[in-house]
């Protein structure tokens, strides 16, 4: 099993490139960045976890941060955890994904999702009621752009006819697409248009049962990576037993001393699991 970390790339903490160099030097396999273009001040959608931390509205742009991380490293996999595709134009997003993957030499992993903040979606012109259908069409449309010289797509929410867009991703036909979330229909989306599932660990082991369900339903190899994994060797043991490809732990946003302290705790858990 591989190991990685997640990070909110805020302007008042370690820069994306600095974090990337640190975790690559310390032997982590991957670094995934969170995305929020903004947080509506109305705060109508409750934050799933109490009071929302300020890091949610202090992030750099996702693809700017990913480019900095990729440029600062040579081996580290860089990814989105998650890219809020329903809030992005699919043609621009396809270009950004392909650009980061091309510039990084094929080290990008595309975590996608619909998000949970309904007023944030509305600010981008997306009706929350149809967000899952929008997500599916935008991902399918991007696949067409990445894999064809001349791409077209005709759907209910995405339409374009005969476009050229380069560069193409370094990974063929595209970087791994990982669907985030743990909602009741998430496995349907994974099986419909993704290469893998990117759930959060949560407060219990329910995700393990759903990994088994996914394996039973899949007629092709489907990768599972788990975010929000605690620095607990026992949890790592359970994830490894379930066949998880990569476990990832969120690092706090902040100065190097704060980030490094959390990284050392994660490394200690990995070391205990590995030795055990």
Structural description of this entry:
With 276 residues, the chain is α/β, with parallel strands linked by helices. It has a single domain (2-275), classed as TIM Barrel, CATH 3.20.20. 38% of the residues lie in helices and 18% in strands. It contains 9 helices and 10 strands. The protein has helices at residues 16-25, 62-71, 90-103, 118-123, 131-147, 186-193, 206-217, 233-241, 256-275, and strands at residues 2-7, 30-33, 77-84, 108-113, 151-154, 159-163, 177-180, 196-198, 223-226, 246-250. It has an 8-stranded parallel barrel with strand order 1-2-3-4-7-8-9-10, surrounded by 5 helices. It has a two-stranded antiparallel ribbon with strand order 5-6. Helix 7 links the parallel strand 8 and strand 9 (223-226). The two termini are 14 Å apart. The mean pLDDT is 96. InterPro entries: Lucif-like_OxRdtase_Rv2161c, Luciferase-like_dom, Luciferase-like_sf, SsuD_RutA_monooxygenase.
Question: What's the number of domains?
Answer: 1
Strand tally? 10
Mean pLDDT: 96
User: What does the main sheet amount to?
Assistant: 8 strands, parallel, barrel
Binned, the helix content reads: 25-40%
What are the secondary-structure elements, in order, as H or E? EHEHEHEHHEEEHEHEHEH
Count of runs of 4 or more consecutive helical residues: 9
Strand residue percentage: 15-25%
CATH homologous superfamily caption: Luciferase-like domain
Strand order of the largest sheet: 1-2-3-4-7-8-9-10
According to CATH, what is the class? Alpha Beta
- The name CATH uses for the topology is TIM Barrel
